[in-house]
Specification:
5% strand; mainly alpha; 366 residues
Length: 366
C-alpha cells in the first residue's frame, strides 16, 4: 500500500513538473518571438511595430492563426510545397503575418514581401536563440495535428497485428568502433539500453562487399547478386562505371534485384535509403528520387505541419555550412593533413549540410 501511494505521489510530482516545464518553454518561446519581431522592426524599414504591447499581442495572434490555419493551408498546398522543395512555406508564413497585421493595431507591413521577410527573420532568430538555450518547440501539438490530418488524408498506418521493427543504418560504423564509442561515453542512451538488458549488441559479418549498396540490397530486397562494390566497372556494358547512389544507376540496380516482395512491401516505410524495399511510403530514396511520379508522398505533411520546421532546418543547414567553411580554413591555416582538396571545398559544405541536417530532419519527422 505504501509503495502504491509513493508511486502515485511520484507520478503526480512528475506530471506537475512536466506542466511547469511546458509552460516555461512556451513562455520562453513567446518572449523570443516578441524580441525577434521588435528587432525585425528596427532593421527592416517596411516593418512597423509601434509599441511592445502590440508586439506581444501580434505574436499571440500569429500562434492562434498558425494553430487554426496552417494545418489546412499546408494540406491544401502540400504538393506545391513539396515540388518547391519547401520554399513555398515562406509565402504561407508571410500570408499569415500579413493577415495578422490587420487584426492587431500597431503592427503593419508595407506589403506582402515585408511580411514574408519578417516571418523569415523571426523564424531564424527563434531557431538560433532557442537552439542556444536548448528550448524544445511545440512539436507535441503538431504531432497531434498530424495524426488527425493523416487519418483524413487516408494515410493512417495499418492496424498493428504484431510488433514493428525499426532498422537504422549507421554508415561505416563497425562493431569495434561502436564499442569504443560506448566505452568513451559518446552514446550514453545506447549504453543505458545495453546496461538495462533491453537491447543487445551482436556482431554481424557482411559479405565480401561490405558497403552500403550491397548491404541495403541484401537487407531490403534479399538479393545483392552482382554488386561487387559501391562503384564498379561493367565490362559487358561498354565499360560503364556504375555507382550505387547514381541518380540513374540506383533505379537500374533495384530493377535488377527487385522481385516485388522486398522487406518493406505492404505497410513498410523507407527513409533516405539507396533502395526502396518495395515500400509504398518512401521518402528521399535514391532509387525513386528522380521519378517525378513518385516524388510526392502525403507523409511530407508530417514535416511541413509545423510552420517553422522547414525554416528551422534551412537555418541549421546554413549554420552547418558556415561551420564547415570555418573548419576548412583552420585546417588550411594550420596545415592539417589529410584534408579535402581545395577544389572540393566549395561543394562539400553544402553536401554535408544536406546529408547531416536536411535529410536527418526529414527522416526523423516523417
Amino acid at each position: 500500500m505504501q509503495t502504491t501511494e509513493r508511486q502515485t505521489t511520484e507520478r503526480q510530482t512528475t506530471e506537475r513538473m512536466t506542466v511547469f516545464t511546458l509552460f516555461g518553454r512556451t513562455a520562453a518561446l513567446w518572449l523570443i518571438n516578441v524580441l525577434g519581431l521588435w528587432l525585425t522592426a528596427l532593421v527592416v524599414p517596411g516593418v512597423v511595430v509601434t509599441q511592445w504591447t502590440s508586439a506581444f499581442l501580434f505574436v499571440t495572434v500569429i500562434a492562434v492563426l498558425n494553430a487554426l490555419l496552417w494545418p489546412l493551408l499546408t494540406r491544401l498546398t502540400l504538393r506545391f510545397v513539396v515540388f518547391t522543395l519547401g520554399f513555398f512555406t515562406f509565402v504561407l508564413n508571410g500570408l499569415i503575418f500579413w493577415f495578422g497585421s490587420y487584426l492587431v493595431p500597431g503592427v503593419s507591413f508595407n506589403n506582402l514581401g515585408y511580411a514574408v521577410l519578417a516571418a523569415l527573420l523571426m523564424g531564424v532568430f527563434n531557431t538560433l536563440l532557442s537552439s542556444l538555450l536548448a528550448i524544445d518547440d511545440d512539436a507535441a501539438f503538431y504531432r497531434s495535428t498530424v495524426e488527425r490530418t493523416m487519418r483524413r488524408m487516408g494515410s493512417e498506418p495499418a492496424p498493428k497485428q504484431y510488433p514493428g521493427v525499426l532498422l537504422l543504418e549507421v554508415d561505416g560504423c563497425s562493431a569495434a568502433v561502436f564499442r569504443h564509442a560506448l566505452a568513451n561515453g559518446v552514446m550514453p542512451a545506447l549504453a543505458r539500453w545495453l546496461h538495462s538488458g533491453s537491447h543487445q549488441l551482436i556482431d554481424w559479418e557482411t559479405d565480401l562487399s561490405c558497403q552500403t549498396g550491397s548491404a541495403q540490397a541484401g537487407i531490403l530486397h534479399g538479393n545483392n547478386q552482382d554488386i561487387p562494390a559501391f562503384r564498379w566497372v561493367e565490362k559487358g556494358n561498354n565499360n560503364r562505371i556504375v555507382s550505387a547512389n547514381g541518380p540513374k544507376d540506383s533505379p537500374l540496380i533495384e530493377q535488377r534485384i527487385n522481385d516485388g516482395s522486398g522487406l518493406l512491401a505492404g505497410a513498410g516505410a523507407g527513409r533516405v535509403n539507396l533502395f526502396s524495399g518495395n515500400a509504398a511510403d518512401d521518402l528521399m530514396v535514391y532509387s525513386t528520387l528522380t521519378s517525378l511520379s513518385k516524388f510526392y508522398k502525403p507523409s511530407y505533411y508530417v514535416f511541413f505541419a509545423n510552420p517553422y520546421n522547414f525554416l528551422r532546418t534551412l537555418t541549421l543547414a546554413v549554420a552547418d555550412v558556415l561551420h564547415e567553411i570555418s573548419a576548412c580554413r583552420r585546417q588550411v591555416k594550420h596545415n592539417v593533413q589529410p584534408r579535402l582538396p581545395e577544389r572540393r571545398g566549395g561543394l562539400y559544405p553544402w553536401v554535408r549540410a544536406a546529408a547531416t541536417v536536411v535529410l536527418r530532419d526529414i527522416c526523423v519527422y516523417t
